[in-house]
Amino acid sequence: MSTDAAFLLVSFGGPEGPDDVMPFLRNVTAGRNVPDDRLAAVAAHYSLFGGVSPINAQCRALFGAIEKDFAANGVDLPVYWGNRNWHPYLADTLRQMAADGISRAIAFATSAYSSYSSCRQYLEDVDRARAVVGEHAPRIVKIRPYFRHPGFIAAFTAAAERAVASLPEAVRAAPDLVFTAHSIPRSMAAASGPAGGAYQAQLAEVARLVAAGLGKSTWRLAYQSRSGSPAVPWLEPDISDCLGALARSGSQAVVIVPIGFVSDHMEVIFDLDVEAAQTARDLGLPMARAATPGTDRRFVAMITSMAAAFESGRPADVPGGEAASLCASGCCARGSQPASRPGARPGKGT
Questions:
Q1: Which residue has the higher pLDDT, 112 or 347?
Q2: By the 8 A CB rule, do 210 and 156 touch?
Q3: pLDDT exceeds 80 at position 211
Q4: Which domain holds residue 187?
Q5: What global pTM score does this model have?
Q6: What is the mean pLDDT of residues 26-37?
Q7: Nearest-angstrom CA–CA distance, 113 and 94
Q8: How far apart are CA 76 and CA 307, in angstroms?
Q9: Three-state DSSP class for 169?
Q10: Mapping DSSP to helix (H, G, I), strand (E, B) and coil, where does residue 2 land?
C-alpha cells in the first residue's frame, strides 16, 4: 500500500432539510443572477420530499459499499467523499485529505458520460477546491467516463429486468423500452467529447447494450429535466412527449430506464416517479421505472476494479481507452449557451 494515496468519491450534493434548500439552490446558481423568487419556485419541488434530496443519502450508502468492497478485495485505499455544491464540500474534504498525509487520489464522479456538465465541470470544481486548499492539496486524477463498463451496463440490465417483471402480467410480454437522461443544451451536446457529439452517442450505446441484454433490438431515447430559456434549444424528445407518442402508437406498456443517472436523486424521483408517472396514468399507459445502479454489487465491483488498478499503477479498468486520465484540453466545452450540469437547473434540483 502507498500510504499517501486515496480514493475520492465526487458528487453534486443536495439539501438535507428544509432550511438547506434555498442556500443550496443559491450555491448551484451562483454567478447566474437567478432571483430568489425563481429559486423559491424550485424549492417548492423539494417540499414534496420534506426538503430533502436523496443524493447525499445515496452517496453515504455508496461510500459504505465501496469501503466494504475494498476491504473484501484487498484494495488498501482510504475512501473520502466531497460534493460540489453542499456538505461535505470538496474543499473541506481535500483539506482533510492533506491533513491526513494524502498526496494523490483517484476521483470517481457520480456521472458516467462526456459533456461539460457531466465531466468537465467536475474537473473545474476539483481544481477550484485544490486552489482553496493550497500547495498541500492532493493531486487528483479523475476516472474518465465509464458508461460502457460491463458493470455499469449489467446493473442497468438487471434493474430493467426487474422493472419488466413488475408490470401487470397482461402487458409484461412486450413493453416498450424508453431510456432517459438529463437534457442539456444542444450546443453543449455538440461540444461533448474530443470530436463533439459524444453525449448522445454514449447514451445511445448504453441503451443499445442494455436493450440487447433484454433480448430487444428496438428502444427509444428521451430526455428529462430541461430548464432555462425556451429560446435555447435543448435535447429532445422530452419523456412526457415520448410517452404520448407511444400511447398514440398503441403501446401496451413502457419501462423507463434512467441510464443518465447513477442514483435515485431528485431528477429521478420527481421527473420520473412523479411527473412521468402521472403522464402515463393520464394516458392509461402502464409504466414501470428501472432502478439506478446505486449500490448494486456489479456497479460497486466496477468501482473497486478501477481503484485497484490505480493502486497498482495500472490504467483503470474502463473499456475504450486509458481510464485514469484528465480530459484533453478543450474537450467537452461548455457550448455557446450557459447551463448548469444535469441536476443543477432552476427546474427541479438534484
A1: 112
A2: yes
A3: yes
A4: 150-289
A5: 0.92
A6: 87
A7: 24
A8: 9
A9: helix
A10: coil
